[in-house]
């Protein structure tokens, strides 16, 4: 018990040294306001009585009484901290605070009566007797206890609010860490598979064209450099995401050659919108793996984006076989319900970042194949200008993107 009190006193001193004087000033301000209110009430109540106290005496009495409670407030807050009202200790601590409210209330009132007896300016005209003191203590007991319990209730409200804010902060931090872990996990899952295929392609090129193999190595190194640079941010401008996916597609073009036909339909204003980092790669990889690679003559990959009604719409469409069902909607384990790591991770990240304010679905493409569609809230990147990516073949359109 003694050690607990000592720890609380030490914690109180540390709070004062680290800016906790704001609490002291709040206590002083509260009781100054109470002194003003009490003075007004007392003066108004006795204004029509001949034997009522003078205005100056009412001020002195109110100030003395408020000063005593201001001095007692830190002690009440200390008791509230030592014996908090919690689920596990509510019965015991409520009884303790009932006892403390009696002790503190009676102590403050006795001190106030003593000050009235020794300070001439607030001394009553009538003789102070033991009967009057007992009568005063009995009649004012409920008010003294009420003051104690009001301060205790305020402390509990502040304590619960602080715990609520701390819980929200911890939840936000855990959510950020979870998203970061999902991003890192997705990157670790995708890159080994991609690197294996790329190195296998480079090995094959070494016997056909060393120049092409050397160019492939340069593209791979550039892709890995961008991948490392984008390893921390959760959201990036769409222009950077498209620039990153273009490095990825440059390597895939070397593998598929003429079989892979890539085009873009991106509105200029969409480039400056924020999107989840590494959003397009799993969609593009899924489109190539399950769509274009299954067509002997190759096929088309179309990447598009537009902004409208405060919503950013993104789609990745590819030639290939149609979907029998949407793997994002079908239950896991049932026919059509099997989803890859990339799609599952993308769906989980979108859910964590945007909640119900997003849409992610797979549908059959009217040109023959599959279309992945994503809708998220439009959020402008904090840059003065997001330049349109250059250095690749693109088709920029201003008409609405066909959602098929």
Structural class, from secondary structure content?
Answer: alpha+beta
The CATH first-level class of the largest domain comes to Alpha Beta
User: How does the overall form come out from the CA principal axes?
Assistant: rod-shaped
Spatial order of strands in the largest sheet: 2-4-5-7-6
Gyration radius from CA atoms, angstroms: 37 Å
Largest sheet, strands/sense/barrel? 5 strands, mixed
Helix-strand blueprint:
Layout: H1 2-46, H2 55-82, H3 90-118, H4 130-208, H5 210-229, E1 235-237, H6 238-256, E2 260-266, E3 274-276, H7 280-290, E4 299-308, E5 311-319, H8 341-354, E6 359-365, E7 369-377
Parallel strand pairs: 2-4
Antiparallel strand pairs: 1-3, 4-5, 5-7, 6-7
Give a verbal description of the structure.
The structure is a single chain. With 404 residues, the chain is α+β, with helices and mostly antiparallel strands. It has two domains: 2-128, no CATH class; 177-377, Heat Shock Protein 90, CATH 3.30.565. Helices cover 61% and strands 12% of the residues. It contains eight helices and seven strands. Strands 2-4-5-7-6 form a five-stranded mixed sheet. It has a two-stranded antiparallel sheet with strand order 1-3. A hairpin with a 3-residue loop joins strand 6 and strand 7 (369-377). Helix 1 packs antiparallel against helix 2, helix 2 crosses helix 4 and helix 5 (210-229) packs antiparallel against helix 6 (238-256). Residues 332-338 and 384-404 have low confidence and may be disordered.
């Amino acid at each position: 018990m003694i050690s607990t009190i000592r720890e609380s006193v030490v914690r109180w001193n540390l709070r004062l040294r680290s800016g906790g004087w704001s609490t002291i000033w709040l206590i002083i301000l509260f009781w100054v306001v109470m002194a003003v209110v009490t003075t007004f009430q007392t003066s108004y109540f006795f204004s029509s009585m001949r034997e009522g106290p003078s205005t100056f005496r009412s001020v002195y009495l109110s100030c003395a009484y408020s000063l005593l409670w201001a001095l007692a407030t830190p002690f009440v807050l200390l008791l509230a901290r030592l014996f908090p009202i919690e689920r596990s200790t509510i019965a015991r601590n409520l009884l303790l605070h009932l006892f403390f409210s009696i002790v503190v209330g009676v102590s403050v009132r006795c001190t106030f009566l003593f000050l009235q007896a020794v300070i001439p300016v607030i001394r009553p005209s009538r003789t102070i007797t033991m009967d009057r003191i007992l009568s005063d203590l009995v009649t004012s007991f409920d008010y003294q206890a009420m003051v104690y319990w009001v301060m205790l209730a305020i402390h509990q409200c502040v304590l619960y609010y602080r715990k609520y804010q701390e819980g929200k902060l911890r939840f936000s931090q855990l959510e950020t860490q979870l998203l970061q872990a999902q991003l890192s996990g997705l990157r670790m899952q995708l890159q080994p598979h991609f690197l294996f295929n790329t190195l296998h392609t480079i090995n094959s090129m070494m016997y056909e064209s060393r120049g092409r193999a050397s160019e492939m190595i340069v593209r791979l190194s550039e892709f890995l450099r961008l991948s490392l640079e984008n390893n921390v941010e959760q959201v990036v401008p769409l222009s950077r995401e498209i620039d990153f996916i273009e490095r990825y597609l440059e390597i895939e073009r070397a593998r598929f050659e003429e079989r892979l036909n890539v085009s873009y339909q991106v509105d200029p204003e969409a480039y400056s919108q924020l999107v989840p980092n590494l959003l397009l790669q799993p969609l593009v990889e899924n489109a190539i793996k399950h769509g274009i690679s299954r067509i002997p003559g190759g096929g088309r990959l179309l990447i598009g984006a537009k902004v409208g009604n405060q919503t950013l719409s993104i789609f990745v469409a590819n030639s290939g076989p149609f979907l029998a069902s949407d793997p994002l909607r079908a239950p896991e384990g049932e026919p059509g319900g099997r989803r890859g790591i990339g799609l599952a991770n993308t769906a989980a990240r979108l859910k964590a970042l945007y909640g119900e304010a997003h849409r992610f679905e797979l549908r059959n493409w009217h040109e023959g194949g599959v279309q992945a569609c994503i809708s998220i809230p439009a959020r402008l990147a904090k840059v003065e200008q997001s330049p349109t990516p250059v250095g690749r073949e693109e088709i920029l359109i201003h008409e609405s993107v066909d959602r098929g």
